[in-house]
Design brief:
Elements (H helix, E strand, L loop, with lengths): L1 H6 L1 H22 L8 H7 L39 E2 L8 E2 L1 H23 L2 H23 L1 H5 L4 H13 L14 H12 L5 H33 L5 H14 L1 H11 L3 H29 L3 H11 L3 H11 L1 H15 L1 H17 L10 H7 L3 H18 L3 H30 L3 H8 L3 H28 L1 H12 L2
Antiparallel strand pairs: 1-2
Helix pairs in contact: 2-8, 2-18, 2-19, 4-5, 5-7, 5-19, 7-19, 8-11, 8-18, 8-19, 9-10, 9-13, 9-15, 9-21, 10-11, 10-12, 10-16, 10-21, 11-12, 11-16, 12-14, 13-14, 13-15, 13-21, 14-15, 16-18, 18-19
Amino acid sequence: MLTEMRTHEDWWAIWCGGMLLVLAFLAVWVNRPDVAPSTETAAKSGVEQPAELPAEQPAVEIRSPLKPYLSKPGKWTDNPLDAFYQSATEETAAVDKLTGTLGAMVVIGVLFTLAMQFRTGTGSAFLLAFPCVFLLATLAYTMAGQRVVSDYNLEYALWALLVGLIISNTVGTPPWLKPAAVTEFYIKTGLVMLGAEVLLSRLLALGLPGICVAWIVTPIVLITTYWFGQKVLKMPSRSLNMVISADMSVCGVSAAIATAAACKAKKEELSLAIGMSLSFTVVMMVVLPLLIQAIGMDEYVGGAWLGGTIDSTGAVAAAGSVLGKTAEQVAMTVKMIQNILIGVTAFGVALYWTLRVERNPAGDRPGLSEIWYRFPKFVLGFLFASIFFSLLHGTLESGPELVNATIKGSTKTLRGWLFCLAFVSIGLETNFRELLPSLRGGKPLWLYLFGQSLNLCLTLLMAWLMFGIVFRELIETIVQDTLLP
């Protein structure tokens, strides 16, 4: 057990993700505005104590001191260099994203170099290749930041995947670059950090109606879609079938990544599932709000429908904002409740794969130790981060401000970089020639269309029942008093 915790990728994802979360929170905690020198300390230093502040003086905003040093490329219109630095004008201050981009590269590069050295002794090879992989991720972020592209919500994940695919399917991925294309390590560490953003208070905010939309429909769609793929479409790859089913039913890319780890899916299968998810997300993000407006659906039901069906969290926010602030808040809350199922789904898939799919021909069932060995351990980090930051959010006097400053000031940015690096790595490791057998007959596409159609219908029915009829008055009160500012 101790050897596994020192060498296994899942455990190192927990150590790296946990370290980044703890250090980011401590930076905010130490620099919070209510930390002031004691009277004795101030007297010794010669600092005069201020008089009691007037009651009407506004509270000082809590910010992360790391924010200026951790960022990603910004928006630009005509000149890509504007994504990194914009000079000050009479109306606006100077914008420096270059320092933060370099800061993110240093933090991730140093941490992962040490991790790779301790795990496999390949730290020097990783360090040599990492700047190039990070440069490709920076290119993807820059392309996504172009204002026209951004308005269509063509997010960085799509560009990162395309950048990697173009290289791997044309000139080929150079061997010296592969030590830094550690797809699963990036992904697992990013998912551990994502746990800090999934707060249990969000679940409690909408309570039963939100749970019904996010937790009842999702497993029904996942199981039915997997059954349809095996029994009707007769897909040859069970792991591809499961990854597509989880991707489409739970919450898109994050669920696909966790499920792929649980069922030992090939990188090519994960790449195919993510590619379809990103493509359909763009379409649904545009079409669903227009459909909701055309039929006159109210914001509560419409927001719940968007949150339960659109895969990407960013796309959910964009689609909800088209309908209004209420729909946006409801959609985001339902999506965050659904995100909690990432860990549950990964555990369930690992259990099913171990007990049913990969048992030996004699029918002998593996013991608990085998199930534990196959279980994706990084999910434990995701759950622990969610619980820990939920407790901080709910118990500390300035908990919400401290947690928000930690996430928005540093950890969300680093998590985004890790996911971007992972998508670049997926592209670099994917060759279309190896995908062709899985694409024959269009079965993956038919599977996705079936599952998403079922998902749209069942989620709409549940959203209408929960948010439109059964809990309508309660929902209006909760949204107005709790979710809306």
